[in-house]
Each structure stands twice: as C-alpha cells, then as structure tokens.
Amino acid sequence: MEINDLITPHSVLAQLRATSKKQALQELAKRAATATGLHERTIYDVLSERERLGTTGIGMGIAIPHGKLPGLTKLYGLFARLERPIPFEAIDELPVDLIFLLLAPETAGADHLKALALVSRLLRDRAICEKLRGTDNADALYALLTDHTATHAA
C-alpha cells in the first residue's frame, strides 16, 4: 500500500480555512462526502465519535482523523494543509496545520491499521512536513506526499 492508493490530486486541499477542530472536521467531512458518495453528516459523526475516544492530533502540528464507515468499498484519504494552525487538543498541545483524513470500510481491519501506520510514518518525517508547510499549491502537495512514498517505500 502506498499513499497514492489513498489520495488523488483532487483529495488534496492546499489552503483549508477553519478556525476550530469542529469546523475543520466539518469541512473535511463535506469534501469526503463528495469523494465517497456518503452523507457528510454520517462522516462527521464518525469522526466526532473517534475524537471523543481520544484526540487524533498526533503532535508536531499533525492530525490523522479517521474512522470506519458502512457503505465504503475501499480506503479513502484526504489531505489538507490549513490556512492557519488551529487548536486540535493534540497530544503535545500544539496547534495543527496538517491533517490527513482516513476513511475505511467497516470490514477493513488490518488494511485500516496499515494505512494509519503508512500515513503516520510519512507525516513523522520532519523534512516532508517542512516542505508541505512551505507550499500552498495542491499539485505540489500531492507530489510531495506521493513522491516521498515512492522513494521511501517500506
């Protein structure tokens, strides 16, 4: 599995505007609804429920909100670089500006965990994150995310 199995150029958002965690999740759910054909409220509810279990803000300005949804047939990813960092209740209490949303079928099991691990490994690379923060062009963000995977395959 590679990052380009999860995202497409259309699922990369270069300057997402949000002023709160809730608003960011709502905007991501809206965009994900378009990609998946599922209702945005259903997606938002799954993401909110996951956040109630514990934050998906993994530190260093990064969050990986995720959830399993009935009706999905494959894994979906959505990457957003926020216009401005927002409070996200991250484990290091720093604001978040890079978000990788991951949605999986209810039956995904190991594939869901593999995808989370893949995204986490990618976004823990400080050099990649600096480059992601250094551009506000969606095509450049997509290239950074997918090219890195090709050169650092697990």
Protein architecture, described:
This protein is of the alpha/beta class. It has one domain: Mannitol-specific EII, Chain A. 43% of the residues lie in helices and 23% in strands. The protein contains five helices and six strands, in the order βααβββββααα. Strands 1, 2, 3, 4, 5 and 6 form a six-stranded mixed sheet that branches. A hairpin with a 2-residue loop joins β2 and β3. The longest helix has 16 residues. The protein is globular and about 35 Å long.
What is this structure, in a nutshell?
This protein has five helices and six strands; from the N terminus they run βααβββββααα. The chain is of the alpha/beta class and 154 residues long. The chain has a single domain, classed as Mannitol-specific EII, Chain A, CATH 3.40.930.
Overall structural class, as computed from helix and strand content, comes to alpha/beta
Rg on CA atoms, Å: 14 Å
Helix and strand string, N-terminal first? EHHEEEEEHHH
Q: Give the N-to-C terminal Cα separation.
A: 9 Å
> What general outline do the C-alpha atoms trace?
globular
Oligomeric state of the chains in view:
single chain
Label the CATH architecture: 3-Layer(aba) Sandwich
How many beta-strand segments? 6
Regions with little confidence, pLDDT below 50 for 5+ residues:
149-154
Sheet with the most strands, sense and barrel status: 6 strands, mixed
Please give the count of helices. 5
Per CATH, the class reads Alpha Beta
Measured as a percent range, the helix fraction is: 40-55%
The CATH superfamily name is Mannitol-specific EII, Chain A
